[in-house]
Amino acid sequence: MSPVLSVITTVVVGLMVGVELSVAFVINPITLALPAPASMAARSHGARMMGRAMPFWYFGSLILAGVLAATTWGTTTSTAALVAAALLAVSVVMSITLLVPINNRSKNWTADSYPEDWREQTRRWDNLHYIRVAVIVAAFTLVAIAAVAL
User: Fold this and answer.
1) What is the pTM of this model?
2) N or C, fewer C-beta in 10 Å, the chain?
3) What is the pLDDT of residues 92-119, one digit of tens each?
């Protein structure tokens, strides 16, 4: 079971990292460079779309890493998987406490109705997201190490 579980965990976490890297370094810089009305439309649509999908992905990744750690307990694999799960837990806490509140505000912005500090709020979200991306990249690296160590 562990080899299959390690592959599934690696793929799920790796794809999540890829999506979040794309958001951080491609999508959000493009939307921030747009004029305010277009930027509002893009950011609010992205906030609604990603806000529906990402909670399942983050919690799913955390659960998979935790199960990988539990099923390999007492091995070097379990240590890497356990630290990966802890980092994924940090990313979930960061998301809920820091990023989701900004995301929830931005998903209601329109071209006609948005706050004056919208760029500051989006930059704050982006900066927090960079930190979260670093955390999940580290978690992904540890999941990959755990998968190879099996």
Assistant:
1) 0.94
2) N
3) 999 999 999 999 999 888 888 888 898 8
